[in-house]
Structures are given as C-alpha cells and as structure tokens.
Amino acid sequence: MTAFPDDAVLRRARPGDEDGILACIQALADYEKEPDAVENTAAMITATLFGDEPRAFAFVVAGPDDDIRAIAIWFLTYSTWTGTHGIWLEDLYVHEQYRSHGYGVALLSALAEECVRRGYSRLEWTVLDWNEPAIGFYRALGAEALEEWTTRRVTGEALQALAQRG
C-alpha cells in the first residue's frame, strides 16, 4: 500500500469500492466523449472483481474517507512470442481535481511492479490518438507507441454474425 502526503492510499480494490470505481468509469467515458456507452453496474463490478473467479483486477487510490480518487483496472494477457503473461491496463483514470498528485504515476508503477513480481513481460494499454495530455504523460514514463499495430473490435450485430459463421 502506497501512501500520499494528502493521506490518500493506493491499494487493491476491495468490496465496497464498486460505486467509486463505477463513478471513475463513467467520468472516463464522459472525458472520452462516450457518456452513454457505460453499461456496467456496481453489481457487475462486484462479480468481475470480487466473484469466485475474478477475471479483472483493480488498484485504487482512496482518500481518508475511502472516497475513490483514481483507478487502474487491468487483466492478464498472454504473449505467444515471449511465452509469458502480461498485464493489459483497461482503464486508468484520475478524477480531475486530483491530477498532479502523483496518483497516475503511482498506479502505473504498481502495475509495473506487479508485472516484475510475477515475471510478466509486458504492460500494455491503448490511448485515444487525440488525448495529447495522456500521450505526453505516457511518453514521459517511457511508454512506446506501437505505430504499426492497430486495434480491431467486433461488437453487436457483427459479433453475432461472426459467431454464427462457424
């Protein structure tokens, strides 16, 4: 657990954090100009992070009253090339009023530490190409842009159609 001068702490998410995590997810969607895209609920977060077989994990920065100020939600990947797992950072978000407190760096550092401790070879994520503040932040931490790779996604009707092709 990492402590900050303002009495906030970085820790693993725990039951009771769901509403604060969901608020960060919604704030991130708002920032990314997709305010209506969030279908997640506190109950879904409970099942995903704290159920019998968690498939995703989260670190949070919580204030003295356990108010969630920042999140890093992640899950495991696997590289066939390296033969090891890695961490995929799905969401990193710091509420605007808490930016420049070191929370983002601390969350990414905790994820890097998790990779090193477990012997994982990669920490990866995506960033929107217009999000210059985030791109600059990541660049300053040594994150490389993989310009030759593009993300692909199949959802909705296309996902249903692809499932039926087999």
Q: What do you see in this structure?
A:
It is a single chain. With 166 residues, the protein is an alpha+beta fold. It has a single domain (2-165), classed as 3-Layer(aba) Sandwich (Aminopeptidase), CATH 3.40.630. It has five helices and six strands, in the order ββααβββαβαα. The protein has a six-stranded mixed sheet, sandwiched between helices. The chain is globular and about 55 Å long.
Set out the fold topology:
Blueprint: E1 2-3, E2 9-12, H1 18-31, H2 42-50, E3 57-62, E4 68-79, E5 84-94, H3 103-118, E6 122-124, H4 132-140, H5 156-165
Parallel strand pairs: 5-6
Antiparallel strand pairs: 1-2, 2-3, 3-4, 4-5
Number of helices: 5
CATH class: Alpha Beta
N-to-C series of helices and strands: EEHHEEEHEHH
Q: Look at the helices and sheets and give the structural class.
A: alpha+beta
Number of domains: 1
InterPro entries: Acyl_CoA_acyltransferase, Diverse_Substrate_AcTransf, GNAT_dom
Organism: Microbacterium galbum
Domain N-acetyltransferase: 8-157
Keywords: Acyltransferase, Transferase
